[in-house]
Amino acid sequence: MANRVKAPTALRLHGTIARDIGMAIVSGRFAPGHVLDGEISASEGLSVSRTAYREAMRILAAKGLVSSRPKMGTSVSGRAAWHLLDPDVLAWIFKSEPDEHLVNSLFELRRIVEPEAAALAALRRTDDQLVAMADALDGMERFTLAHEEGRAADQRFHAALLDASGNAFLTSLTSGVSAAVEWTTIFKQRRSPLRRDPLPDHRQVFEAVRAGNAVAARVAMTTLVEQAYRDTTGADQPAAA
Description:
The protein has two domains: about 15-80, Arc Repressor Mutant, subunit A; about 85-235, GntR ligand-binding domain-like (Four Helix Bundle (Hemerythrin (Met), subunit A)), CATH 1.20.120. Helices cover about 65% and strands about 5% of the residues. The chain is built from eleven helices and two strands, in the order H-H-H-E-E-H-H-H-H-H-H-H-H. Strand 1 and strand 2 (about 75) form a beta hairpin. Helix 10 packs antiparallel against helix 11 (about 215-235).
């Protein structure tokens, strides 16, 4: 019997198949060690071509979610193998109900990375990077995080900050940090509007970076991430009257 996955309808069929199976994996519906149906059986069950299904498996394998062995088939990998900062994997995690430990771990990473990136940015930022950060703040203020345009501006702010650190390894984390910012913000608003405006926290970071004050930038970014963590972990609580 084919694995029960929502039949794809999008034009990019292999991406839709990968998304549906990926969400089943990260949500725990397909547990580590679970052996997926073979290519012929799965493609027939989903009414898709073998080529589309094969490409979907390649996508999932590249993200560490599945692995294939000769005569063993394709099975779900343990979480230790998942590329957790892959933007698609993060999206799939937060479209379901992420477990508490995973959310805590994500914010632990942000606490380690972003305050130090902000401190470096205060010492190394260029005028163009300051302009990019200021433009992003204007976008956040104009559209707010309740709208896609405002969330995109938020991502641009964090991307510009990492770029301003002048550290290629920190900059390489941009896609992962941006995805974390985007999907935790969406998750916060799943049941109720945001309880507070996070823009002042971002402006505090910007002002410290613009002033070249590394200590203040580190403190401001630590506060920003900590507030974001509290907002996210309290997202399932009813808003105060």
